[in-house]
Amino acid sequence: MTETEKLQKVLARAGLGSRRELEKWIADGRVSVNGAVATLGDRVGSEDTLRVDGRIIKVKAEEEIVQRVIMYHKPPGEVCSRNDPEGRATVFDNLPRLQGMRWVQVGRLDINTTGLLLFTTDGELAHRLMHPSNGFVREYAVRVRGGMTPEKRQAMLDGVLLEDGVSKFDSIEDAGGAEEGANHWYKVTLTGGKYREVRRLFQSQDLDVARLMRIRFGDLTLPPQLRQGRWMELEPEQIQALIGKVELKGKKYTGLYGRARLRHQRAGSKPPRKARGPYRR
Fold first, then answer.
1. Could you tell me which of 261, 118, 266 has the C-alpha nearest to residue 274?
2. What is the protein's known function (predicted)?
């Protein structure tokens, strides 16, 4: 029996977008498999012909995929979407141009929030980086108006029931400011990724967020020399560190092509190949 994978996962690995974005493409009828319009839930094998908007998509083996990851310093006023119906600037406007691939953003920041955003050409990597189960810590610098009391601080550490469930900070660190509480800075960390979660947590305690800046994602910290509207490419060892943190434990060979390679190696009694190499510039 031919090994198969979910259609959106194969397309994401080809660098066409995030899984969520590609699921919408499938639902909108933009994707076909062997000439038939695809549906959500379809699985494909290595012999299937995939098309998006009528264009044949060449699906590469995992070891052939060039993975790029960049850090971008988002300024205020940019929206986290590829196209904005209101004509506002987007976070994609200043990114380097690609051929045959697309930048996929890892999470979002609201229009007024600044700071660190990650983009990658590997939609599957983006999906795993965003997935809550991988527990990547986000750190923010927050300027708050209003008086922070020990009770309010503890409430946000213990957990607050918001419209979409309980949210909490993992830590709240005093970062200086006016002693009376007006325009006081804090550094907060959390592992969630809900919509406007930091702002809503402070608002639940009648504290107004005047400025919000993401300064860290996992082990990646916003470089002080990276100015707003600029991007910086990750080094190969940094990309490999990210990949290592999101790979499934105990499954060195994953995916359609990984399993096929493993079967071939077993048949030929060859030792396993090393994990895919670093990004080649």
1. 261
2. Responsible for synthesis of pseudouridine from uracil-2605 in 23S ribosomal RNA.
Q: Give the integer Cα–Cα distance in Å for 198 and 189.
A: 9
Using a 10 angstrom Cβ sphere, with 0-12 exposed, 13-18 middle and 19 or more buried, the burial of residue 276 is: middle
Query: Residue 48 in contact with residue 54, Cβ under 8 Å?
Result: no
pLDDT value of residue 263: 44
Nearest to 117, CA basis, from 232, 202, 5, 205: 232
Q: Which residues pair with 115 in a beta bridge?
A: 74, 214
pLDDT digits (tens, 9 = 90+) for 111-158: 999 999 999 998 888 888 988 878 899 999 999 998 899 999 999 999
The catalytically annotated residue of 53, 93, 110, 174 is 110
* Residue that the structure tokens 């190949």 belong to: 273
Please state, in angstroms and as integers, the Cα–Cα distance from residue 76 to each residue in 93, 228, 247, following that order. Answer: 14, 9, 33
Q: Has 110 been annotated as catalytic? A: yes
Percent of the chain with pLDDT over 70: 83
pLDDT in tens, 40-75: 889 988 788 899 999 888 776 666 667 899 999 999
Long-range pairs for 64-67 at CB < 8 Å and ≥24 separation? 65/13, 65/14, 65/15, 65/122, 65/276, 66/121, 66/279, 66/280, 67/120, 67/121, 67/122, 67/125, 67/239, 67/243, 67/279
- For residue 151, CA distances in Å to 43, 148, 202, 207 come to 52, 8, 13, 13
pLDDT in tens, 183-224: 899 999 999 778 899 999 999 999 999 999 999 999 999 999
Contact 259, 251 (CB under 8 A): no
Please give the Cα distance from 93 to 181 (Å, whole number).
37
